[in-house]
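User: I'm writing a tutorial on reading structure tokens. Could you give me a worked example: one chain, its sequence, then its tokens, then a sentence or two explaining what the tokens reveal?
Assistant: Sure. Here is the example chain.
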Amino acid sequence: MNAMDPTSAEEIRKRAEALGTWFHNIELNGVWTAPDHFLGNYPAVKWQRFADAIPQDLTGKTVLDIGCNAGFYSIEMKKRGASRVLGVDFDDTYLAQARFAAQTTGHDIEFRKLSVYDLGALGERFDVVIFMGVLYHLRHPLLALDLIHEHVAKDLLIFQSMQRGATETMPVEKDYTFWETEHFDDPRYPKMHFIEHRYADDPTNWWAPNSACVEAMLRSAGFEILQHPETEVYICRRIEAPPGAEAVYPAQGRTA
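And here are its predicted structure tokens:
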């Protein structure tokens, strides 16, 4: 019996199914990896809402895709001519899917198993850093943003997080007295909702920030918000972090 053509739709479908359930719906030579996704054609439906906010030509640019999942955004960056794209994730299944998707679509992309908390091990900075759909899955989200700023971001950050609560923001004073508490009760004040158990039947959903919280965290970590093209997506530029923003808490406390 002749071996099956590795590029045939039947063989691609078999190999994709063998890699488990896909969260990214990617077209692999006519075969869709997650055609029944509960969010529709995801993440393409989200990508279409902010794709124009990212430079169309990434020739000569390097890209780091943190929490790359099956590699949808890594592939899109390579399509725009990025010279090097590195996708990192801590899930072996996602990494296997990403490697298969990149290989099948003919894109030279490197994928590596790495925790967001170990980004310093890369020892390099990237022109574009993608950090989408990760923050709310982390036990220590602000630390992750600090580490991205400190170790890997050179210029642009493409950020997205699930958000819940108020979408409006409010002016926040630089300081409040100990006795002023009314602002904490305003739903527009930066808030992060902690999920002790599960949300959407996902035990890794730990946090649900409101819009003001997302924006405040980005600024606090040293990222200037340039555009907000989609409800949950922010295009940012790395700038100098504000005083007191360190990835590791100082060994000695502040003195008066």
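What the tokens reveal: The helical segments are 9-18, 44-50, 72-79, 92-105, 141-152, 211-221. The chain has six helices and eleven strands.
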